[in-house]
Amino acid sequence: MSMAFVFPGQGSQSPQIGVPWSDTPSWRVVEEVADATGVDVGSLVCHASAEDLVDTAIAQLTTFAISLAMADALADAGVIAAHVGGHSLGEYTAVVAGGVLSLSDGATLVRVRGEAMRSATMERVGAMAAIVGLDINDVQTCCEQVDGDVWVANDNGPGQVVVAGSPDAISALTEPVKAAGGRAPMPLKVAGAFHTPFMASAQAALDAAIAKTSFNSATIDTWSNVDAALHTSAAAWPTLLSTQLLSPVRWRDQITAMADAGVDHFVEVGPGKVLSGLIKRIAPDAARSSVATPEDIAALVA
Questions:
Q1: pLDDT tens, 22-34?
Q2: Residue 255 · residue 266 · CB < 8 Å
Q3: Which of 89, 176, 156, 170 lies closest to 126 in space, CA to CA?
Q4: Residue 191 has what pLDDT?
Q5: How far apart are CA 196 and CA 193, in angstroms?
Q6: What are the beta bridge partners of residue 150?
Q7: First-last CA distance in the chain
Q8: Of 67, 88, 224, 290, which one is the catalytic site residue?
Q9: Is 195 part of the annotated catalytic residue set?
Q10: Residue range 29-44: mean pLDDT, rounded
Q11: CA 251-203-101 angle, 5° bins
């Protein structure tokens, strides 16, 4: 059996996700992220409200920190993955888990990325919405029929595509989407149009931070959203992480490629079970598990 850890992105966070981990040895990961960023991440993952966690910078840093604490606990329990990947923000979690970045360097990049993206959402109001019932080619055709800025942002799996852009353009998608046989766009609880040109103003800050960061060759096979491919070279990842900011997340293609490479057990490590649901559609023959509490690890080991 070849196991992969997959890490969720922004939108999976929930209040008090850190409480079950606060008295475990893996809490050291949360503390190290706090030290590296100057943000009281421990308090946020235990006490922040749902409204607070919608904030882009807070959502990204808390999801990153607690997901890596869970991965640390898995390692302590002897559960080791042969592959890692993550959805959007989760890719930063994956490159740390895969050895490409140190925890402190990864945390620093996530803080810069989240703050830059938050600023971009204030400069240009955007939104995201899920479209169920259509595949990516159909959704792209619908976007082209709309007079306004809207793009495919995530190809999440068969029959689920996320679009992003101006709120008016997303609203205007309703008619062509329904005409094509899909459901009306369902708004997502995020603050902006991520993985689209609406994030362009965040690029300079992210690239400056990436340029100051040391990258390593992967110690675990690490997969990218940008091209749905495996990359183990240190030289590849600065460009991949930079490009990912404005590029669609090719999650369906990535999971398909991982399954084709021999992954037959995907473990979702982090808040929520969104990725497990998507993987069930993409790679139905693969085993799926999720880890969000210490009890989940005990069950996985058993």
A1: 999 999 999 999 9
A2: yes
A3: 170
A4: 83
A5: 6
A6: 165
A7: 15
A8: 88
A9: yes
A10: 98
A11: 65
Beta-ladder partners of 128: 164
pLDDT tens column, 230-264: 999 999 999 999 999 999 999 999 999 999 999 99
By the 8 A CB rule, do 120 and 200 touch?
yes
Q: Residue 192 falls within a domain, yes or no?
A: no
Q: Which of 54-58, 166-170, 242-246 has the lowest mean pLDDT?
A: 54-58
Confirm if 300 and 267 have CB atoms less than 8 A apart: yes
Shared domain check, 288 and 201? yes
Same-domain check for residues 107 and 19: yes
Phi, psi (rounded to 5 degrees) for 84? -140, 150
Mean pLDDT of the chain: 96
Identify which of 191, 275, 207 has the alpha carbon closest to the alpha carbon of residue 246: 207
Handedness of CA 161, 163, 168, 173 (dihedral sign): negative
* Cβ–Cβ under 8 Å, residues 105 and 234: no
Give me the domain span that covers residue 115.
3-122+197-301
Structure tokens at 193: 């149009």
DSSP string, 31-50: HHHHHHHTS-HHHHHHH--H
115 and 216: one domain? yes
The answer to whether 254 touches 228, Cβ cutoff 8 Å, is: yes
11: DSSP letter: T
Q: Which residue has the tokens 């899909």?
A: 182
Q: Which of 22, 7, 107 is nearest to 57 (CA)?
A: 107
